[in-house]
Amino acid sequence: MSDTFKAILITRNEDKSQSVAEVDMTEAELMEGNVTVRVEATTVNYKDGLAITGKSPVVRRFPMIPGIDFAGTVLSSSHPDWHPGDRVVLDGWGVGETHMGAYAGRARVNGDWLVPLPRELTPVQAMAVGTAGYTAMLCVMALERHGISPERGPVVVTGAAGGVGSVAVSLLSKLGYHVIASTGRPAEAGYLKELGAAEIIDRAELSAPGRPLGKERWAGGVDAVGSHTLANVLAQTSYGGAVACCGLAQGMDLPASVAPFILRGVSLLGVDSVMAPKPLRLEAWKRIVHDLDHAKLSTLTTVIPFSGVLPAARDIVEGRVRGRIVVEM
Fold first, then answer.
1. Which residues, 6 or more positions from 96, have their beta carbon under 8 angstroms from its beta carbon?
2. Beta-strand (E) ranges in the chain?
3. How remote is the C-alpha of 50 from its chain's centroid?
4. Residues 6+ positions from 52 with CB-CB distance below 8 Å
5. In whole angstroms, what is the distance from residue 242 CA to residue 255 CA?
6. Can you give the pLDDT at residue 164?
7. Which residue ranges form the domains of the chain, and what is each CATH number?
8. Cα–Cα distance for residue pair 131/323, rounded to 1 Å
9. Contact call for residues 263 and 236 (beta carbons, < 8 A)
10. 119-152 burial string, b = 16+ CB within 10 Å, else e?
């Protein structure tokens, strides 16, 4: 085993700006944990882009290896659930934010954060799903728990050409929903229809300040955008409907009124993937194996080498990425 491995390291300068560089590291430089994993595949998520570019204060400890998810093989473990050779997946738990993350040849983490890599998936396939796809699955499960079935009517997906949105469109269409995909990139209409979208709308219909209550257009939604977009999705949700919220690409604010909630009984379902309990994670990954069209998954995935992480991080923040980016280590 090589004594060193490549890693992307974010450091903070004296003026509190950050620097990002590819460096050589050793396992001795990793943080504490009871399982050490050889990282075989990871992804570039929107949050990773924010961390690397510094456009949002994602990183809360320096120095930091970014990267919020990975799939790989256990090298050593003092955790009772894991043994050398086990194949594992990690999403969230502050990895890449407060605990050194995935953009390195090795990761040392708390074994409680890991779940088994499904036998049906390779590490690259698992990371094609990644945190974005796993979050999309949690959103679909939240809508189902609220009783939003295909028979209830259409569902809208915002930020549809992004990571969460692409997987949400694919999942919902395979489950029989009539999916309305909202995107700011009209050129991606063919891509979204290939994933299963029945209708495409321009995000401009939702992204500007709107009325407290609008025409009822959909029974539910998956929103990764926030701000005015989420407010307008709620205002146009039909009686008794629900919207699963998991992102803030437009903003953290929610300039909405209580009208959809008290006049139409609409529910806003918050979805957190970072600290989701293990039983929910296991259910989500089981559903991903069976409910996601893995042929479609390959069409929404771009595989890049480790050297492509930094350019991809800039691209994803600038809205120049569609679907999923997998980093093959």
1. 47, 48, 51, 58, 59, 64, 65, 66, 67, 68, 102, 103
2. 5-12, 18-25, 35-43, 69-77, 87-91, 106-109, 115-116, 155-157, 179-183, 199-202, 218-223, 237-245, 267-270, 301-305, 324-328
3. 13
4. 8, 10, 20, 66, 309, 310, 313, 314
5. 18
6. 93
7. 5-117+298-328 (3.90.180.10), 131-270 (3.40.50.720)
8. 12
9. no
10. eebebbbbbbbbbbbbbbbbbbbbbeebebeeeb
Location of structure tokens 């009871």: 34
Per residue in 197-234, pLDDT (tens digit) is: 999 999 999 999 999 999 999 999 999 999 999 999 99
Looking at the chain, how many residues does it have? 329
Contact 18, 10 (CB under 8 A): yes
> Are the beta carbons of 125 and 118 closer than 8 angstroms?
no
Computed over every residue of the chain, the mean pLDDT equals: 95
With a CB cutoff of 8 Å and minimum separation 6, the contacts of 226 are: 245, 247, 248, 249, 250, 251, 252, 253, 254
CB-based burial label for 318 (10 Å; 0-12, 13-18, 19+): exposed
pLDDT tens digits, 43-87:
999 899 999 999 888 999 999 999 999 999 999 999 999 999 999
Strands 5-12 and 18-25: antiparallel
- What are the φ/ψ torsions at residue 309 (nearest 5 degrees)? -65, -50
Look at strands 301-305 and 324-328 and give their pairing. parallel
Q: What is the rounded distance in angstroms from the CA atom of residue 142 to the CA atom of residue 268?
A: 10
Q: Could you tell me the two tokens for 202?
A: 């321009």
* Half-sphere exposure (Cβ direction) of 69: Cα atoms closer than 13 Å: 30
Strands 69-77 and 106-109: unpaired
Which tokens is 32 given?
């504490």
Cα separation, 89 vs 13, in Å, equals 33
CA distance 165 to 163: 5
For residue 1, is pLDDT > 70? no
